[in-house]
């Protein structure tokens, strides 16, 4: 059955909206998973800022303008048995990808070092939950307008978009020499709905979220040291 002209217009607008919307979104899964210490957890508070972790801490009394080096500890997978569907191979691939994204992003502003020292910020980051998207279902729900509506309704009920990949991390940033805590956080994010070839990869959402995290960390450090040309993260 042919769609009337109005029907074509509605479909066109729906597809344009999907293409323009952000493809990741923060979700409410912010319970501690045990990677950070109780002392750090006690400092975390809701940030209500999409450019920061859902729960976060920032030491505004700490002057990081003199810090010109970063030490990025190997990203670890710190997931429990019910914290996602990671195989050992997937887990290794994700932590490697995350490490590379962090290195590539932070090296734009800082010298990378391999050992603690003065004027160095030390990053410790863990993936505490990772879930790949359901590719077949995601393709259907995105392309068919009725499916899009159903997915949006489901997201309101569950608090997260249906069939999408999800990632949750815990992290802390310290002065590598004095161990003073500069920042820490817990964040959880899920993929959204967008029409592109990335949907053919079950881990595409998670990889986008990791890239966003790397960009957001660089952005927050830029703001904290008072630079004038800070690049806001790109929401993909």
Features:
236 residues, alpha/beta, Double Stranded RNA Binding Domain, 35% helix, 21% strand, globular, disordered N terminus
Range of helix content? 25-40%
Number of domains: 1
Termini gap: 35 Å
Compute the CA-based radius of gyration: 19 Å
Whole-number average pLDDT? 78
The secondary-structure element order is: HEHEEEEHEEHHEEH
Spans of at least 5 consecutive residues with low confidence:
1-22, 137-162, 195-200
- Report the portion of residues in β strands: 15-25%
CATH topology assignment:
Double Stranded RNA Binding Domain
- CATH architecture classification: 2-Layer Sandwich
Structural class: alpha/beta
Strands, count: 9
Would you state the CATH class? Alpha Beta
- Give the biggest sheet: 9 strands, mixed
Number of helices: 6
Shape: globular
SSE order and pairing:
Blueprint: H1 5-20, E1 24-26, H2 38-41, E2 45-46, E3 55-58, E4 69-72, E5 76-77, H3 88-106, E6 111-112, E7 120-131, H4 135-143, H5 145-158, E8 166-175, E9 181-191, H6 204-224
Write a structural description:
The chain is 35% helix and 21% strand. Strands 1, 2, 3, 4, 5, 6, 7, 8 and 9 form a nine-stranded mixed beta sheet that branches. The chain has one domain: Double Stranded RNA Binding Domain. It contains six helices and nine strands; from the N terminus they run αβαββββαββααββα. The protein has helices at 5-20, 38-41, 88-106, 135-143, 145-158, 204-224; strands spanning 24-26, 45-46, 55-58, 69-72, 76-77, 111-112, 120-131, 166-175, 181-191. The chain has 236 residues and is of the alpha/beta class. Strand 2 and strand 3 form a beta hairpin. Residues 1-22, 137-162 and 195-200 have low confidence and may be disordered.
């Amino acid at each position: 059955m042919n769609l009337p002209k109005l029907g074509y217009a509605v479909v066109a607008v729906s597809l344009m909206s999907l293409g323009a919307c952000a493809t990741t979104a923060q979700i409410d899964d912010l319970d501690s998973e045990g990677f950070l210490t109780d002392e750090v957890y006690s400092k975390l508070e809701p940030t209500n800022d999409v450019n920061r972790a859902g729960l976060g801490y920032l030491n505004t009394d700490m002057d990081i303008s003199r810090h010109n080096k970063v030490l990025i500890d190997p990203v670890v997978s710190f997931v429990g048995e019910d914290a996602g569907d990671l195989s050992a191979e997937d887990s290794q691939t994700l932590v490697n990808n995350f490490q590379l994204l962090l290195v590539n992003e932070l090296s734009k502003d800082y010298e990378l070092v391999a050992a603690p020292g003065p004027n160095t910020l030390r990053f410790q980051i863990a993936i505490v939950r990772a879930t790949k998207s359901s590719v077949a279902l995601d393709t259907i729900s995105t392309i068919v307008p009725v499916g899009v509506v159903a997915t949006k309704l489901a997201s309101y009920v569950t608090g997260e978009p249906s069939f999408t990949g999800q990632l949750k991390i815990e992290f802390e940033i310290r002065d590598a020499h004095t161990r003073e805590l500069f920042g820490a956080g817990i964040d959880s994010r899920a993929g959204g709905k967008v029409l592109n070839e990335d949907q053919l990869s079950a881990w595409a959402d998670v990889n986008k979220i990791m890239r966003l995290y790397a960009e957001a960390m660089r952005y927050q450090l830029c703001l904290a040291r008072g630079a004038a040309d800070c690049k806001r993260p790109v929401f993909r």
